[in-house]
Amino acid sequence: MAPTYRIAMVCDFFFPQPGGIESHIYQLSTKLIDRGHKVIIITHAYEGRTGVRYLTNGLKVYHVPFLVIYRSATFPTVFSFFPVFRNIVLRERIDIVHGHASLSSLCHEAILHARTMGLRTVFTDHSLFGFADAASILTNKLLKFALSDVDHVICVSHTCKENTVLRASLDPLMVSVIPNAVVADNFRPLGYPTTTSTPPSSISSPIPGLPPNPSSSLSSSLTPPRRILGPHDPITIVVISRLFYNKGTDLLTAAIPRILAAHPNTRFIIAGSGPKSIDLEQMIEQNVLQDRVEMLGPIRHSEVRDVMVRGHIYLHPSLTEAFGTVIVEAASCGLYVVCTQVGGIPEVLPGHMTVFAKPEEDDLVAATGKAIAALRRNEVRTELFHEQVKNMYSWTNVAERTERVYNGISGAISEAEFYGYDHLKDHRNGSNGSWTAVTATRGMRSGVQSFALIDRLKRYYGCGVWAGKLFCVCVIVDYLIFLFLELVFPRESIDICPDWPRKKKVVDTRREGGGLEWGDVEEYRRRSRPSRLR
Amino acid sequence: MAPPSGLHQTALSSDFETPFPPLVRSSTAPVAFKSHRADPSHLAPEDAYSPVSPPRRTSLYNVDGSGSGSGTNAPNGSANELRPRLIRRKEGSRSRSRRRQRRFQKLLWVKQSYPDNYTDQATFLEKLQRNPRVKPYDFWPLVADSTVIVQQVCSVIIFVVCFVGIFQERVSPVSVVGFGSFATFIGWLLWDWWVGEESLGAQRAMDGTTTHSHRGRDPRPVRHQDSCGGPTRNASIVSLPGAGAGAGTGTGAATSTPASALPSAAPSPRLDQHLHIPRFSVGPADSRSASIEPSTAAASPAGSRAQSVADFHEAHYGHHRQRSSISSPIRGGGVLPGNSRLQLRLSTIKSAVLIYFTLLGLSPILKSLTRSTSSDSIWAMSFWLLAINIFFFDYSINNNPFTQATITNPHSNQTGGIVTGGSTPAPAGAALRAGVGAGTGAATPLIPTLTSTSPPTSGTSTPATNAGTGTGGTSSRQPVPGTSSSSTPTAVPTTATGGTTTPIPAQHKFPIASLSTNAALMASTVLASRLPSTGQVFSLTLFSIEVFGLFPVFRRYARHRSFRYHVILTVLLLLGAGAGVGIIIGAPCPPPGSTTSSSVTMAAAAAAGAAGRELLVISPTEEVIDGGIMALGWTRGVCECWQTWLKHSLLGMIVSCLIAAVAMGGCSWWLIGLQKYKNEIYGPWDPARPIIISRRYYDDE
């Protein structure tokens, strides 16, 4: 029986604010609750949302009153969060503090305080940062501070992992790659049969490594009918993004007139708002494209699917992207995806669902043209995408993999298993070489970092010539505050919050979201081949 | 000892498909915190640079083997040597069942048979680039470039020396300003002559092509192609002087190839709307707007690219014509060059007179401006302001061939700005980027925008811009010429080439050059307010305008004309500054004749002022003559002790030359030496720089 944990997710960004990180936290928390853990969320107070709230599934949200400075990130006061945080942690008997988003100062503070209080910490990074500009340098130094003493880091893509490892000078084995996911049922294509309880054919061997069953996911009886496009049928290209510079709106603005000029019977639907929308509108007016480009303005996340299913191609011209959930959503809706090859995007979807372009106007136009031509030739079996995406990404799987991280840092699985194998051999053979050194800093329990203040200080000291000393001072002050709080607000006087009855852990053998097997891709290729003969 | 990592690697690669072993905990786990790097458990960026080697492995083993981590690490060597064999034996069977059937790939959608924190050594950080765009410096070019800074520092020193001289009453203020004005006048004459020379070349080139003028629009791109592909690059550059009175080195070529330079010049009907806009400097605007297109066509290096550029301009001007309802009759030929030059000179003289009288009127106010402030604050403040001037001065030497695209910008600001009705000035940097984007984008999107360098044209392009701005500044009669030296005021990136009428507002770039000029003028103002008499205040302020406002323009232009002028100017400035400092420091006694001479010059100044007020028109020439006479009298007055002065000034010159040589050489050498610490990291996580052909909406967020 695997242990269950009490987890506190800490992030500045949470509902009611919409966004990718917010829904990530919510979905992950929900699935973790489903797996028998207790999860609370700590965020700052939003307008109209203060105090303690409960969301669906018994998810408890603490809205801590804090000063918001920029785009709902709180002001980085290093210590002021500690009393409230300690109270919440003790009240809820938290074991693991899981922070999200590197721009959230609340999360960094929580990790610092949690380590002072002797808790395990995990950090999830959702974004990419460069190394050149001044803002990045500052952010990276702060991230280094926060992550000097973290137990494990989760990144949403391999590119993100590389970036985080470099930014925070982390041991790469301390960093796991666990992608985002989508709720595939919320992104069904138009006319897709509503799923019954479980598609019977999607059960496959839970043991990884076995040759996959070729008829596992594709020969489902529920496969919808093909959409055959005639040579003159209109093709709709959908763009849903915030219209910012780094989302590539400039590229989009430049590419749209050329795409529309080169391909009759195409039209665009653009949803989203932002400072660049004025450029798009000007482009539409100058080229007199009002009847072929539809601008919907800002839409809610729940309406995304309804917009997506109106189109055939999803165009994603972003300039930087850690994961790109929206292209997964689009593929799940059965759209053929044209996207720029930046950041973590190339890792996200298999090649038969996407056409990649360089972040250049010409290449984007060419790639879109290629996608349109492929659709017109009916080469792309877009109706199969939904089932495949469902098999690639699911929050249940994400929660499962996150749980393994929790197990690893809390010692439920051995360090050898968590980090690699030869460590165990070292230990067994009694070599007192690196192993003793490891135990000196990592603590006697396997796979965990020591809580001793001197060890923590050693880790912080390495952050830089001046920064290291400054960080050490911060840690010491934090520790003193902790002692002071223990004295003034003793643990005994803090009420223990009764938990919800835990859910029974669902033993789910359904293979969903674990990723596509290579055989599935070959199967897809085999099945999409005859269409070309038609 | 042999590094065991090799063993490890061969063992695994024989068993599995991956050429590299998986990164395991023992290789990344910390050894000891006593090691050289502060926290070896963490991957430092320098570990990641060789993407093949695992981050900590080699250094870990080296530490173990060499025993640099003393004491506790001593037994590690044997243990580590022992380990790989054990791994091979035991892990082989186990991981064959558990681990890969396939190689690890950086994909998220595929079902990996690896744990989530698996770090593949073959692919981890494989796309990391380190210092990809670093261009190594050479010593002598660096020294040559540093002369610009020396010039500015020297002019500031000369200014301070002059102030000290006036303040201690060693030097009569009128002689200072007389010399300054005389030098300014000479400089202006020289500059005017250069400009005239170049615009004459352009005019000839245009006259040669008037026969081509009244054709339709259609054959134009072809002709553009001819003009760019056919004649030499030099000839196409020569069209620029007409644009903004620039392009020094090409002048000779201009006279030699007049006919081929501008086949599609001014009088084509598309541009007429621009020509008839009432403007202070009609003539220059005419010639400039005429040569916009050829110059831009010349900006794209290959002849084949000119087509697309021409198309853009066609769209641009076609668009403009749609907008403007004024369709004026066709106007053949250009305006006479003499006429325009005369007007230009008149306008310059006018603005000079304006400045002169404004200062004259303001100097009593300036004199008592900071009476309530103590002198110490003034010294500190002026020190900081002059430091700001030096640090924020626009030293840029744009060695970018595509800068030619910006040459069109000032003029299309004049034309396009009028048509669209008020276009916002954008900083030159933005214009440059826009121009670059347009040029390269139109050429081929694959060309990286800023990388290519072509030396022969690079020197000519920038100062042409500056000259253009200089004339623009004077013709629009800006009262403080310092702003015209800042090279910021004229550029609209979009209207220049893109063809839209959207003015991009000035943003994201602080106009540091005007900050520098303003700081210097403010310093001179507060310094002048320490002076006791109105004449002194007036002289110092006027002198500061000459030094900080006009002189940088001239220096830039001289640098553009020829490097020899630049060097001569630098040496002169250096010697002057050294001599001045030597005199100020070394010769403490005020010369005996100075008081009399100053009184004499005071009277002369008063007389000149009275005369000016009577006549209401006073030309710089008269003023300079006055100044010259005064200076003569003054020198006669002080010649008694000139021997001590000469001695000190010679000493100062020698010392200053030594200091300058050491500083320039030393700093250049130091900068080259510092290059080894350069460490830029690029990777797929960096935001991509979009390449957009019709760079209409480009700005960094």
From TrEMBL, chain A:
Alphabetical UniProt keywords: Glycosyltransferase, GPI-anchor biosynthesis, Transferase
Keyword Glycosyltransferase attributed: yes
Record-listed E.C. numbers: 2.4.1.198
Domain PIGA GPI anchor biosynthesis: 44-133
Pathway: Glycolipid biosynthesis; glycosylphosphatidylinositol-anchor biosynthesis
Entry's Gene Ontology cellular component terms: glycosylphosphatidylinositol-N-acetylglucosaminyltransferase (GPI-GnT) complex
Superkingdom of the organism of origin: Eukaryota
Database matches in Gene3D superfamilies: Glycogen Phosphorylase B
Composition-biased stretches (Low complexity): 194-207, 215-224
MF term (GO), any: phosphatidylinositol N-acetylglucosaminyltransferase activity
Segments of this protein annotated with the region Disordered: 194-224
GO biological process entries: GPI anchor biosynthetic process
PANTHER family in UniProt: N-ACETYLGLUCOSAMINYL-PHOSPHATIDYLINOSITOL BIOSYNTHETIC PROTEIN, PHOSPHATIDYLINOSITOL N-ACETYLGLUCOSAMINYLTRANSFERASE SUBUNIT A
Name of the protein this chain belongs to: Phosphatidylinositol N-acetylglucosaminyltransferase GPI3 subunit
Taxonomy of the source species: Eukaryota, Fungi, Dikarya, Ascomycota, Pezizomycotina
Gene name, Swiss-Prot/TrEMBL: gpig-1
UniProtKB/TrEMBL annotation, chain B:
Membrane topology annotation: Multi-pass membrane protein
Main location: membrane
Biased composition (Basic and acidic residues): 216-226
Biological process (GO), any one: GPI anchor biosynthetic process
Biased composition (Polar residues): 7-16, 288-298
Positions of region (Disordered): 1-99, 205-268, 280-305, 444-505
UniProt GO cellular component terms: glycosylphosphatidylinositol-N-acetylglucosaminyltransferase (GPI-GnT) complex
Compositionally skewed regions (Low complexity) per UniProt: 252-268, 444-503
Residue ranges of the TM segments: 139-167, 173-194, 537-554, 566-587, 650-672
Keyword set, alphabetical order: GPI-anchor biosynthesis, Membrane, Transferase, Transmembrane, Transmembrane helix
Pathway named in the protein's UniProt entry: Glycolipid biosynthesis; glycosylphosphatidylinositol-anchor biosynthesis
MF term (GO), any: transferase activity
UniProt-annotated location(s): Membrane
Family in the record: Belongs to the PIGC family.
Protein name per the record: Phosphatidylinositol:UDP-GlcNAc transferase PIG-C
Record-linked InterPro entries: Plno_GlcNAc_GPI2
